[in-house]
Design a protein that fits this description.
The complex is a heterodimer. Chain A has 11 helices and 12 strands. By secondary structure, chain A is an alpha/beta fold.
Chain lengths: 375, 204
């Protein structure tokens, strides 16, 4: 059985992007779990984070582990016995949806830097094409963490009638300056790697390994917390008892980061890294939807919200989520907001946490209960 | 906090609120009052609560609550967003009671506020005869760990409303039975013999 599907569109009418350019022959890779009920009230759209894919969870026992395995599955927070779940790979990524590594139909070669700049809004437009094709006009919930949370926010405002609720985790209404700064350092690492060759490294032996792994190492620091790093590594040395007075990887924390960097190069495309970080940097729902005002942006939404922030997330600090929750309350939306006390930093939304499991479960059952009453 | 504390005056508040009202409960705890109002009066309820554990429990009862501090979490609401704003056994915990009162009178058409009466005879006797900070069923804390930082009497609240221009639509003074499930209201000299005061304030 095939679990990874691809929907293609813009074969005749080009797909218009926020930057003014267009794309033709757009692919959106997606996977689904569970069964859609007859009145189509149990569909949930899950958005992955920056380097994620459509593979949120296993489809069968020996399948590879999904990025949200802890939360998606039979009996889990996003219960695949109860809900029909869709997760699509975003535009610009490298896991089956059209991105800089895809073939440009006009040239027959990979787009590389000819790929147009994309935004969070464009990613959702592409996914909306897919969900329209699947004939799901209204979701029970749209949900995601980090960039996925930004997509959930954008979706709830851009398509107010197409979801009953939004679950927004470890996200922000706009990319904070500090996060833009880290992204820029990561991009510079790639851009300055001689193997990057202005993006034209496809098909060659030499790819920008150093730059991409360095970018990942920098990014990874922002996903953890100081406390977590201290607990996990402290000042412990890697495979040795004494200092070696050298610049090589010596502390465990260094070695861990190197491992994260290496592992990443094998699974992610450097140009996708550039395009996706840029798309996140451009994200600001106040500008995109509210002419600069958060209140005006949220006034356009109609759904209920579950918003969770994490106490040690310094990439998207809890204060930011709290501000969104307060503004949404002011708009008269039904909002549940919780700041979860954890040491796991920005990555918390990926890690097993009973408070989060209970919150998501209870929120979803409340949403589906009220749906059934209304029908 | 003791379980019994949460049920104080629920019967009276439930009687007060008309069916289908839009209600905000400040310091909603584990959401029991809003859940009860939803069941009995089909209200549309919202809660604000500072404890994350309580917000989680409230959600399990189908009550939507936000983790926020009452003293700073009200300014985003528009004028007259709610038919009723409830401040049940909470005013004495706020840092800025006058600010909170003004804010909830702004965002609600009516306000229901209920609090333990600090001039109750038992409290007076406690202080008078034992010379210690009073500890009673309604005020079970030690002086050093009490969340009650702005204690008041029924008389104090009347004076406060008069001075600040809040109009009192209804005043109910009451005592509760042992598990707080029912409240008795007919009390002579309430400032002395009522354990709790409940006021309905209405916008002019």
């Amino acid at each position: 059985m095939k679990y990874l599907h691809t929907y293609s569109f813009a074969e005749t009418t080009p797909f218009l992007l926020s930057c003014g350019k267009t794309l033709s022959n757009v692919n959106v890779a997606y996977e689904t779990w569970g069964t859609l009920n007859t009145d189509k009230t149990n569909a949930i759209l899950i958005f992955h984070a920056f380097t994620g894919s459509s593979h949120a969870a296993r489809h069968y026992e020996k399948d590879t582990e999904g990025w949200w395995e802890t939360y998606v599955g039979s009996g889990k927070a996003f219960d695949t016995d109860k809900y029909f779940i869709i997760c699509a790979n975003v535009l610009g990524s490298c896991y089956g949806s059209t991105g800089p590594s895809s073939l440009n139909p006009k040239t027959g070669k990979p787009y590389a830097l000819n790929f147009p700049f994309i935004t969070i809004r464009d990613m959702n437009s592409a996914i909306k094409n897919l969900t329209d094709h699947l004939q799901i006009s209204r979701f029970l919930a749209v949900a995601g963490g980090s960039m996925g949370g930004m997509l959930a926010l954008d979706w709830s405002i851009a398509y107010p009638n197409s979801t009953k609720s939004a679950i927004v985790l470890a996200a922000s209404h706009s990319q904070p300056a500090q996060a833009i700064a880290f992204h820029q350092v990561g991009r510079q690492a790639i851009l300055q790697d001689p193997s990057w060759k202005k993006g034209n490294y496809y098909g060659s032996e030499e790819i920008p390994r150093l730059g991409l792994s360095l970018a990942r190492m920098i990014g990874h620091i922002t996903y953890l917390s100081e406390k977590k790093m201290h607990e996990k590594f402290g000042r412990k040395l890697q495979d040795k008892a004494e200092l070696s007075f050298g610049f090589d990887y010596e502390f465990q924390v260094e070695s861990y980061l190197r491992y994260q960097g290496h592992k990443f190069v094998d699974r992610f495309d450097a140009n996708s890294y550039l395009y996706l970080t840029r798309a996140i940097d451009y994200f600001d729902i106040r500008i995109d939807h509210g002419e600069g005002s958060l209140f005006s942006a949220f006034e356009k939404s109609k759904c209920d919200y579950l918003m969770l922030s994490y106490s040690t997330d310094w990439l998207y600090p809890p204060e930011n989520m709290k501000q969104m929750a307060n503004t949404l309350r002011g708009c008269g939306r039904r909002v549940v907001y919780l700041d979860i006390d954890t040491d796991n930093g920005h990555d918390s939304f990926l890690i097993d946490n009973q408070v989060m499991v209970a919150a998501v479960k209870n929120f979803l059952s409340q949403e589906i209960d009220t749906t059934e009453n209304n029908v | 906090m003791k379980e019994t504390i949460f049920n104080i005056g629920y019967d009276l508040i439930t009687k007060e609120i008309p069916r289908g009202s839009r209600v905000l409960d400040l310091g909603c705890g584990d959401g029991e009052l809003l859940a009860e109002l939803k069941r009995k009066k089909r209200i549309e309820g919202f809660g604000i609560e500072i404890s994350p554990e309580s917000v989680g429990i409230a959600l399990s009862k189908g009550v939507f609550a936000c983790q926020a501090d009452i003293d700073e979490g009200l300014s985003d609401y528009k004028d007259n967003s709610f038919d009723y704003v409830i401040l049940n056994q909470t005013i004495q915990n706020t840092k800025r009671p006058e600010y909170v009162l003004r804010e909830i009178m702004r965002i609600g058409t009516r306000v229901i506020i209920s609090f333990p009466n600090f001039s109750h005879i038992l409290i007076r006797m406690n202080l008078f005869f034992r010379g210690k900070m009073p500890k009673t069923k309604s005020l079970p804390y030690e002086w050093y760990d009490t969340p009650n930082i702005h204690m008041l009497s029924i008389k104090d609240f009347r004076t406060f409303c008069r001075q600040k221009g809040f109009s009192i639509e209804k005043e109910i003074n009451f005592n509760t039975n042992i598990n707080n499930s029912t409240s008795s209201k007919k009390i002579l000299f309430p400032n002395l013999f009522a354990m709790y005061g409940l006021f309905v304030l209405k916008k002019d």
